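Discussion board: Methods & Data

I've been asked by a reviewer to show the raw model output for two of the constructs in my manuscript, not just the figures. I'm not sure how much to include, so I'm pasting the format here to get opinions. Each protein appears as its amino acid sequence followed by a line of C-alpha cells. Is this the kind of thing reviewers expect to see in a supplement, or should I convert it first? Here is construct A:
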Amino acid sequence: MADTASRTMIRTQGRKASAAFGGRRSGTRHPLVATAMVLPFAALLVVVFGGWESVVTQASSVGVMLGR
C-alpha cells in the first residue's frame, strides 16, 4: 500500500505523454463512422449464416400481421 502514490504518478505521466504524441482521445465516435465500421462485418454474418432469408421471412410475417 505504501507504493501506491508512485505508481499513480507513473500512470498519469504516461497518459500525458500519450496525449502529447497524438494518443487516443476520449469521447464518442460519430454514428456514421460507427455504422461504416460495422457494416462489413454485418454483411459477412448475413452471408455466412444465411441471414437474408431470415430478414425476408420476418418482414413478410410483419407485413401479414399488419394486413398488407
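Construct B, same format:
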Amino acid sequence: MASEQAQDQFRLVSPSISHEGKLPRKYTDEGQGAKKNLSPPLEWYNVPDGTQSMALVVEDIDAPDPSDPVKPWTCWVVANIPPTLKGLPEGFSGKEEEVGGDYACLKEGHNDYKVPGWRGPKLPSHGHRFQFRLFALDEQLKLGNKVTKEKLLEDIEGHVIGEAQVTTMF
C-alpha cells in the first residue's frame, strides 16, 4: 500500500541526476565550452489536481557566507510553469521563446549572480548540496519584470498545494 501511495505522490526527478546523486560538471561553471552552465533536465509526475501553475527554485543550500556560516545561493528561479508541461529539457534556460508553445509562458527569475536564468555553481570546494524545489500553485503568479527567489516565495505564500524536491551533490 505504501509503495502505491509513493507512485501517486507529486515527484520531481532529473534523468541525469539520481536523488542524493552527483550533479554532472556540464551543469556547472566547471564544465567545458558548450557543455558548461547548461540547465539540467527535469521531469515531474502526479501534479496535484487544481494546479494552475508551478514554480521552481534551485539553491546551493551549503553555500558559505562570511557573515553567516551557511546562506543558500540561488542558482535558478522559474515561475508560471504551465501544469500541461511534464518537464524542462536540458539546456532550456534562456530559450523559452525559441522553444515556444507552452514553454513561452515561463518566466525565469534572477539568480544570485543577479542575472535571469540558470547559472551553475563554481565552488571553492566540492560537497555542496543543491536542492531543486517545485511548487504546485492554485493560481497563476502576477510577477513584475524582475523576479527573485525572495519575491517568488513571498508571492506563493498561501497558494502552494503541493511541493516536490530532489537534492544533488557537487
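Answer (T.O., handling editor elsewhere):
This is acceptable in a supplement if you add a one-line summary per construct. For B, something like: The first strand starts at residue 11 and ends at 13.
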